[in-house]
Amino acid sequence: MSTMDQGSSPATIGEEALPGLDTGRSGGRALKNNLATVLIWLAFLIALIPLVWILWEVISKGAHSVTSATWWQKDQSGALPPGFDHNIRGARHAIVGTLEIGLITAIIAIPIAVLTAIYLVEYGRAGGNLNRRIARVVSFMVDILSGIPSIVAALFVFAVWVTTLNLHLVPFCVSLALTMLMIPVVTRSTEEMLKLVPTELREASYALGVPKWKTVLRIVLPTSISGIITGALLGLARVLGETAPWLFLTTYFAYLTYSPFGGNGIASLPTLISGQADNMSGAPISADRVWGAALTLIIIVLAINLLGRLLGRLTRVKS
């Protein structure tokens, strides 16, 4: 004989079995969920408004300069031949200077940052008391570097290069200051990527008798190389827009130059913007150059970010 009446439904049985159940509670949870979703979208749109506004202003006011052939082929000095825009002139010298100093910065900062992250993850955590203490000090110093303003880094390089070593300022000093700003960014991103490598891979390598250094070189780094490359390029894109080291450690040079150790200075997009910004109100030509340089810098940073994501996809370990 069945204990369930034919007229009773599962909901009725559930309500009789759980007499204290509040049937309106699920509706309250749905309301809270919908309210939270609306607030999140609202916050996202509020944060998106200034970003879209800035991009629109820069693109609308700088597109005229960037789309000109003069902008990419000439600098700000000398007479231009027929066919070139004599008002805009060009920013080739600033683009080359920005990329050149950025490349030197990456060559110095990336190896130091990656080796620091390897020590913190592979040797600092699993080592003895001495290694752990050193790792804590190194991690603390990386945190300090990540919080210092760019002008402080420029002041430090100036004090060491000029006051202590009694040398003349050269564009290479800008690379040293930018290196101090880039190292903590790349170190933290590399550290997080190394932590994502499964411990089982390391233990399997150790079980086969592979030394620790070879395990790091042949197992850990290839597994995390995708994130390391992405983090390194993002760190480079972050320091390319810094202005204080350029203003403090070198002089703006209106001619195209390739020498990072030349005494005449070097041009960059941030210093081009700074030099032309004083005349924006009285000279429309200066305003065009400022907006064009700003848009060019955004394009370079965007290209580096896209390159980082592309290399990250190409170097990702296939499962």
Automatic annotation (TrEMBL):
Membrane protein topology class: Multi-pass membrane protein
Compositionally biased intervals (Polar residues): 1-11
Key word Lipid metabolism present: no
Ranges annotated as spanning the membrane: 35-56, 101-121, 142-162, 168-186, 219-240, 290-311
Superkingdom of the source species: Bacteria
One cellular component (GO) term of this entry: plasma membrane
Location(s) in or outside the cell: Cell membrane
Family: Belongs to the binding-protein-dependent transport system permease family. CysTW subfamily.
Name of the protein in question: Phosphate transport system permease protein PstA
Species of the source: Allobranchiibius huperziae
